Amino acid sequence: MTTTQLYNVAVLGATGAVGTKMLETLDKKNFPIKDLLLLSSKRSAGAEMEFQGKKYTVQEATPESFENIDIALFSAGGGVSKQLAPEAVKRGAVVVDNTSAYRMDPEVPLVVPEVNEEDIKSHNGIIANPNCSTIQMVAALKPIRDLFGMSRVIVSTYQAVSGAGNEALDELRAQSEAFLQGEDLKAELLPVTGEKKYYPIAFNALPQIDVFQENGYTFEEMKMINETKKIMHDDTVQVAATCVRLPFFTSHAESVYVEVDKSGVTVEQLKEAISNAEGVVLEDDPENQVYPTPLSAAGKPDVFVGRIRKDLDNDKGFHLWVVSDNLLKGAAWNSVQIAESLIKNNWLQK
Amino acid sequence: MTTTQLYNVAVLGATGAVGTKMLETLDKKNFPIKDLLLLSSKRSAGAEMEFQGKKYTVQEATPESFENIDIALFSAGGGVSKQLAPEAVKRGAVVVDNTSAYRMDPEVPLVVPEVNEEDIKSHNGIIANPNCSTIQMVAALKPIRDLFGMSRVIVSTYQAVSGAGNEALDELRAQSEAFLQGEDLKAELLPVTGEKKYYPIAFNALPQIDVFQENGYTFEEMKMINETKKIMHDDTVQVAATCVRLPFFTSHAESVYVEVDKSGVTVEQLKEAISNAEGVVLEDDPENQVYPTPLSAAGKPDVFVGRIRKDLDNDKGFHLWVVSDNLLKGAAWNSVQIAESLIKNNWLQK
To answer: N or C: fewer beta carbons within 10 Å in chain B?
Structure first.
């Protein structure tokens, strides 16, 4: 008889769009939890939440919250992570951080388990969960890169509003209703809360996700570029990104152009590589109009790939359409996978 | 004193999404009309429409409809154009055809006036209006190509539902309302009427516009590829396209990657080229979050360009965000521009 070891788990940002999906994922995966601690900012503290039939009161996160915690899943914004992740680590917790705070820190592994699980091993208490749009892209590209090499990626994204949080979802809903009733649209949150200007997202497309950098790219675009190189351990791979927010609630889609190293690779070979990959599902049958869409991917933990075709001019170029639930594989699911890997591989101890 | 010559003008498909915009454009441009004839399929015949304060009854189009017509603007589907354009030409009319019926016919000029107006001159009675997504892209790329050359384009589109006609707009509206009320979505038209499968467009993204070709590309994608080469008189330019239908009513947006021939070109040079181009408006100031969106471009005749930035790896590569009202510059406005050019340049006579 084997006894399963159980762990004390904290979820920081429990009431948020990603936090609630973290709880759903912990439940779905039957994660070996001893005590569960739900944490949030002061503003959301006191909220009541249910997990596996038991009621929990969300508590305000403080450094002391992490005493006796084994695994802490962070998703309460970069500032909170910067402040509290070191405190949690100091108290012996391993933090899986879903914010951008530590992603490019050379001391912190940035992990998509299907791509670079081994990197988790070298953690110093913090493992970063990549940006949602990065995760699904590298998951789809990994089997292609493994077999045929990869020199270049050009991606244009089609990103759901849930990536901007629950309040942005309320804004999309309110604006959509107003638009359909012929009323004026109130824009108070998107594209970026706290920025100079707001634009309606309902029945619109906003070519800005996160703030602009000096080079004219948005931070979201630079995340895709830099994180891809880090996850793939390859500074030479060329990555370009254009990130666009669109009026749907869940799932990001991506139009991806990829150049492989090998000549003569066929679409069939790419399809086979993707079919055999873990966590990636091929949905690609043009004759029967089979391809993934945001609605069809919502609520599912996998990365879906369709519309695979060869570039008409470049023998090494291919085009793909990659869709995944941004709150699941793009965030909560990937974070819990990292936590599972920590346990399974005995990597919790530093 | 000069007397303005007036012309007998027929609009075929007058009740459709593009047809109504053609009438608006003829009015807005104060087109020199003597008699106006509104034509449609049998189904829509009998409808009453108003133009410049006068009532018109839409008539069923027959070959005889085009007796005494000088200029016929066609937008009633490729089948109708195939059948009636030769009849109209036989009767002395010049046809500006907004369908895909004749676009790739070597005898038929395919024209975006800002790009290749001179091609109109060689017409044999029919001039084709390019696909909406092609028009705005080539209009934006023309000033860049003129100054710096152009070897390659990779485009991912964000296309409005109005490109699929008025009934598709009704479907988007009905589905959006159902979704917001928690009801099931009925999909009966999109992505392609008469195809095997229908998918909801509300709060979704459909990576299919028009039918699939044997090579895995959609016909919409092949239109962008082939029409761009024809309009630019350049079979060597490499063009790749991924076309996606999105849940907004008006304006197509495009994420365009372009490689120029010259080295060392700067973003400022591109911005200047676009600023100076006819029919193209630069809306590009990241610091102040200025960029075009489908809602901001709707109802305007220009092509708007923003988010211009240099590729981080390729000195000759640039990324742009191109937005235009698909029913105006993408269809009706461009058609009427061609008609104006016929008159202005005395090119009506073959």
So the answer is: N
Rounded Cα distance, A314 and B334, in Å: 32
B129: tokens are 């209006």
Is residue B175 within 8 A of residue B284, CB to CB? The reply is: no
pLDDT of residue B268: 98
Q: Which of A189, A184, A216 is nearest to A201 (CA)?
A: A189
- Shared domain for B163 and B240, answered yes or no, is yes
> Helix (H, G, I), strand (E, B), or coil: what is residue B319?
strand
Catalytic option among B123, B132, B233, B243: B132
Q: Give tens-digit pLDDT for B104-158.
A: 999 999 999 999 999 999 999 999 999 999 999 999 999 999 999 999 999 999 9
Domain-located, residue A37: yes
Do A31 and A144 fall within a single domain? no
CA separation, residue B190 to residues A122, B76, B101, B112, B176 (Å): 49, 18, 21, 28, 14
Confirm whether residue B317 is marked as ligand binding: no
B257 contacts chain A (CB < 8 A): yes
Q: Please answer whether residues A56 and A50 qualify as being in contact, where contact means their C-beta atoms are separated by less than 8 angstroms.
A: yes
Which one-letter amino acid corresponds to residue A225?
A: I
DSSP 8-state assignment for residue A139? H
Q: Is some CB atom of chain B closer than 8 A to the CB atom of A248?
A: yes
Known catalytic membership, residue A132:
yes
Query: Are A71 and A165 in the same domain?
Result: no
Is A66 contained in some domain?
Answer: yes
CA B171 centroid distance within chain: 21
Q: Is B132 a catalytic residue?
A: yes
Q: B158 and A317: CB-CB below 8 Å? A: no
Indicate the burial class of A18 (C-beta count within 10 angstroms; 0-12, 13-18, 19 or more). buried
3-state secondary structure B185-207: CCCCCCCCCCCCCCCCCCCCCEC
Look up the ipTM and state it: 0.96
Vertex A225: Cα angle to A221 and A117 (nearest 5): 120
CA–CA distance, A67 with A204 (Å, rounded to integer): 46
Residues B237 and B285 in one domain: yes
Task: Write the pLDDT tens digit of every residue in A43-60.
Answer: 999 999 999 999 999 999
| Nearest CB to A203 within list B217, B249, B286 | B249
Mean predicted lDDT score pLDDT of chain B: 97
Question: What contacts B307, CB < 8 A, 6 or more positions away?
Answer: A207, A216, A242, B284, B286, B291, B319, B320, B321
Closest CA to A217 of B260, B141, B267, B308: B308
Structural domain count, chain B: 2
Inter-chain CB proximity B308 and A216 less than 8 Å: yes
